Amino acid sequence: MSSRADDLSAWRVFVTYAKTGSLVAAADVLDVEPSSVSRTIRSLERAIGQALVQHNSRPMQLTEAGQKALSRMEPVLRTHQKLIESLQTDAAATAGHIRLSVAPGFASRRIMPFLTAFKALYSNIDIDIVTGMKEPDMAKGLCEVGVLTGEPALPGLVYMYRGRNVYLPVASPAYIARHGMPLGPIDLVKHTVYAYQGPVRPETKFLERGEIREAPVYDRVVRMADITTIRQALLADQGVGVDMPLVQIYEDLTAGRLVPVMPGWMRKPEECYVVTSRANWHIRRVRLFMQWFAKRMHEAFDGYEKAVSSIVGLPPKSQISSDEVFQTKR
């Protein structure tokens, strides 16, 4: 069968001709020449091997095959038109910008593969990265989507689970060779310690091992808000990182550039969420991005833990689904 029989535009010409009753009227509706309508009808008839129109009759009459084609093709064309209009509406509804807030360290080292993958799926949505926004900023709508450490509590927020942050005490093998291995929080007093202190999460006040909870003891401590600078200091054999996010160091652990210290001790992992305001949740592109981003982030963070599972023991994970949508109270 000729491909012309599969051409919906050709069938649209036939249906228009059958409904209007003349070549001239169909040509006016379709904004083409009457001869073009005639050629299209003839090409369809050749393709299917049957006449659709009784060509010598006046007024125009359909053959039995033509009547059957009209009854079947008219709803097909309506469905096709509705699909096209729906897709065009969807494209218009998703087009635009989304301001995404993530931790500065994640923005500088990890975010680009996510954005590239999303852009390949939704080329009409642009993601602008901002950093350091907190829960009140999400509630005010200062950005459309943000990643928060800890479950949101302020009224009027919608959120999805992104996976947990794991924080590990680590140092370089060269530093350990020179200064020894700290075995517990009290041993940190003998070492230069690098600790995060910034907008993403509170300073680490306690370390845990199972049910035991102790405060780290410092003599020489360097507190920084830039986690990537702390990582560079550790790789340069400058000290012990007391609470390094696994997302920042999992490759260093698997390559042996950094090693766990204080076996079994760590800051308690924290659940993290992708968050928006209730008003922004009603924007279709925001929903599309949040649902995609939460799932991909969850998969990535599970992958980081799997990569180091043979190097360091990690506590059991929660079973929160990245597909579930939560809302805070109004």
Structure description:
With 330 residues, this protein is of the alpha/beta class. The mean pLDDT is 91. 32% of the residues are buried. It has helices at residues 8-20, 23-30, 34-48, 64-94, 104-109, 111-121, 135-140, 173-179, 227-235, 246-255, 278-281, 284-308, and strands at 53-54, 61-62, 96-102, 125-131, 145-149, 157-171, 192-196, 207-209, 212-214, 220-224, 240-245, 259-260, 267-277, 325-327. The chain has twelve helices and 14 strands. The protein is elongated, with a radius of gyration of 32 Å. The strands form three sheets. Strands 3, 4, 5, 6, 7, 10, 11, 12, 13 and 14 form a ten-stranded mixed beta sheet that branches. It folds into two domains: 3-93, Winged helix-like DNA-binding domain superfamily/Winged helix DNA-binding domain (Arc Repressor Mutant, subunit A, Orthogonal Bundle); 95-330, D-Maltodextrin-Binding Protein, domain 2, CATH 3.40.190.290.
